[in-house]
Amino acid sequence: MNTDVLIVGGGLGGVAAALAALRAGRSVVLTEEYDWLGGQLTSQAVPPDEHSWVEQFGITASYRALRTGIRDYYRRHYPLTTAARAWRDLNPGAGHVSRLCHEPRVAVAVLESMLMPYRSGGRLRVLQPYGPAAADTDGDRVTGVTLRHRETGETVHVTAAYVLDATETGELLPLTGTEYVTGFESQADTGEPSAPATAQPANMQAVSVCFAVDHVDGDHTIDRPARYGFWRDYTPPFWGGPLLSFRAPSPRTLEPAERVFAPNPGDDPLAVDADQRRNPGDSNLWTFRRIAARDLFAPGAYASDICLVNWPMLDYFEHPVIDVPDPAAHLAAAREQARSVLYWLQTEAPRPDGGTGFPGLRLRGDVTGSADGLAQAPYIRESRRIRAECTVVEQDLALAVRGDKGAVPYHDSVGVGMYRIDLHPSTGGDHYIDVGCCPFQIPLGALIPRRMDNLLAAGKNIGTTHITNGAYRLHPVEWNAGEAAGALAAFCLDRASTPRAVRNTPALLEEFQTSLDRDGVERHWPDVAGY
């Protein structure tokens, strides 16, 4: 195949990149190794982590269209109560982690509908389930990528003027010889206050395999996992107790905190206030990432709420899964950990009535679309990251450093984002890093490798550090980065230019940024304070 823009990876960054390039009139081949497009929002089953102003500003117009589309889908197809249907900022799950908690399959339907006109028109071809297997280069250019079918092993070779790496782990970077980093950079390299003295490339954030459950009559206990005994007794040295427990450190204070777990609590879903400024929302594990609140729907539509399990006890930080000899073995171990968490919940978890175990918890693989009942894909928090023209560092955006000055402004801003610098425990034995952050910009230079001419980063592989990735890895920022990368590829083709030239030529940069403005990409924040 040959196309203008090849986008490898169909997560949020990949879909946004495809839409941007297609809007600009370019042909696109988009690939994805899992059954659903959407990455962390769908196949990884993670409700959107978003900032507190998301309903007013701070996201791109196309990301807002995705969010609006999800709400409209519920209003068109689901038996909402009258009050829920009238709720302008409908939160179908009434979860506390986000103002829009929803079932993954709804997001799949909306993403597919956004892409459908371009598929029908023949300018978009989606290769699924295909992942990258090899790449061809000529000097500083990628000349082709070989993609392999997940099940059959069939290969397809694609050539393109521009290649975007939107994979979850930066898979194209080693295949193309693009310079990249992994893990923790040293303080000497970045000057970051929270960085170690020596670089730790194998020290990466935990991955998690999420799953969905409801709670109904009967005994739905799964078979005891083979390594359940290991995970039940597992006590990380920095944790202060067993990992499988409702008592866990608070990410922000590191002090032990007792969580509540009570299925179907009968709370008022219309009263949920999902605002991370005021409350992280994780004290009640059932409502924290709830994706269906049954009381928002007609009586009998749902036998139970549906709860998305993505909790501290699910974090697999035993071993990295990037640049290791057998990553599949470690991802399998993470899935075994997830099954062990579920089995513990069903059999040994303490109940409010003094008993143990919740056998009524039922695994909802139909909600996550997988054969084994868990999420199709692991939730990857940290990717390989390009050595970029511009690397975002902690002192650019940390609230403790910047204070009321706000984040460092970038002359080449191509978007905005906001989230606390939120790092989960890591494979090097580090605890949470969860500190305040200023609303920040996305520099164009973070999408451009220092050397390669026609490869762009379009996801969590942009030029951040181990630390700043904790703020840039969330749903709307990944979407914005991908959208900017897709728009840049199309712009360079239209102007017979290169990404580096666009960034470093004031007239071209201004023209490109103006085109982003027209497409509804916000590049600056109003006067708001971080948290």
UniProtKB/TrEMBL annotation:
Tell me where on the tree of life, at the top rank, the source sits: Bacteria
Q: Which InterPro entries does the protein's record reference?
A: FAD/NAD-bd_sf, NadB
Pfam family name, one:
FAD_oxidored
Q: Which molecular-function annotations from GO does this UniProt entry contain?
A: L-aspartate oxidase activity
What is one Gene Ontology biological process annotated in the Swiss-Prot or TrEMBL record?
NAD+ biosynthetic process
Instruction: Note the Gene3D superfamilies from the entry.
Output: FAD/NAD(P)-binding domain
Ranges where the record places region Disordered? 260-279
PANTHER family the UniProt entry points to: L-ASPARTATE OXIDASE, SLL0471 PROTEIN
| Listed name of the protein | FAD-dependent oxidoreductase
Task: Read off the lineage from the record.
Answer: Bacteria, Bacillati, Actinomycetota, Actinomycetes, Micromonosporales
